[in-house]
Fold this sequence. Notes:
The chain is mainly alpha-helical. Helices cover 74% and strands 1% of the residues. It folds into 2 domains: 22-221, MFS general substrate transporter like domains (Growth Hormone, Chain: A), CATH 1.20.1250.20; 272-488, Up-down Bundle (Growth Hormone, Chain: A). The longest helix is centred in the C-terminal third of the chain and has 30 residues, at 416-445. The protein is globular. This is Solute carrier family 2, facilitated glucose transporter member 5.
Amino acid sequence: MKLKGEKQESSDCSEGSKGKMTLLLALVALISAFGSSFQYGYNVSVINSPAPYMQDFYNQTYFNRTGVPMDSGFQTLLWSLTVSMYPLGGLFGSLMVWPLVNNCGRKGTLLINNLFSITAAILMGTSELAKTFEVIILSRVIMGIYAGLASNVVPMFLGEISPKNLRGAIGVVPQLFITLGILVAQIFGLNSILGNAEGWPVLLGLTGIPSLIQLLILPFFPESPRYLLIQKGDEEQARQALQKLRGWDDVDDEIEEMCQEDRSEKEEGHFSVLSLCTFRGLRWQLISIVVMMMGQQLSGVNAVFYYADRIFQSAGVDNNNVQYVTVSIGAINVVMTLLAVFIVESLGRRILLLAGFGLCCVSCAVLTLALNLQTTVSWMSYLSIVCVIVYIIGHAIGASPIPFVMITEMFLQSSRPAAFMVGGSVHWLCNFTVGLVFLYMEAGLGPYSFLIFCAICLATIVYIFFIVPETKNKTFMEINRIMAKRNKVEIQEDKEELKDFHSVPGGQRKKKESSSTEL
Length: 519
């Protein structure tokens, strides 16, 4: 890398090519996250409040068509389809990440993706007028595809455009907007606002508005410079995009780092999912992503939200007020994720992951105890409320936001789309599984089901502690070298290929080992 000297100091750029938060960078992050991630959160919780009114609509529509009321088994099936089609769509969306981001770019994919959301919003908003409930179920699949793409492409896009010293903070922004989406859906879903018999089609249809805003504004912002340089080979455009994002003209160091990454990857070409899974040089990165994504979804976050209402009722909260308590939990979620944005760069990723999963693990264990004893010990119901809040805090600072940041950081340009596709698929598949299995688990095990979540959190903590490195303030190439050491492969000095230790003849090794294994 070139020496940074006189030129750079004049442009507030400190040693280590640290970037500052420019207005353009902040706007790109906000528009991408508001137009895409926000709706992922919104659609997770939007059908919780109006559920009884929507079920009435299903019933009424069926009755009007056939003249007989819907039997309860069929109604349960239709409703569980309405709920579970969303994560299933998310899985399909994740499978589309690799072809779309490689062919249309990161920004291009986000723009195309908005068409899914706007279509689904129009269909859901008009479903009552059209007197069809099938359209709602279809729209949930379309919305799921949208969320599956958004949940992967936004972190990838923002991670690639951020300077390394802000990458963690900007990487948590999508998760912040997901929690905001959940909160806004909870507020709009209050009975007094739109969570009623007349308002629910509007509640479902509102999801199209952020997409429309993004569709109109995002085209004016630059594409990911890494995509332009490494995948499109257009250095001039990449340089212009980078200059706009950084707010100064001297971006030689970052361009040089990208060229270095480009050279190191020429040999491997683009990874498909299959080649990613079989490539030894990325083995531990891939396992780490799968473990963190499984930990994130199987740690019981959906179950805690599901149980929350009941826990508050047993603590003596009036039935009419439970919805306000749910909103306050949503608000805690937003505030703690906002905190993560500010502390991820100072504390680092590992600490937040370990602390987050640690809090979830402890609160699941105590919650099991509290739920079992709350009939005999009067104050136990208050302890279970505390557990729920601690759990939400733990998930919001570490388990929810950091895994997506880590996918961006642990993979280089050629393998990143495939890695997001794997990580995203695991994320949505586990989400779908928990939704499907939890009701049966809860019926069979009751409060003891939280012990399973406790064990999953513990296993994730152990793995992260021993395997996952700290990636704070490192370039993608530096992180790659740390992981190369773990994978027992060597990165060539001239950055042309990754070779197995064993396949490199002794004479060729010389001093390269030390450079590739430096921490």
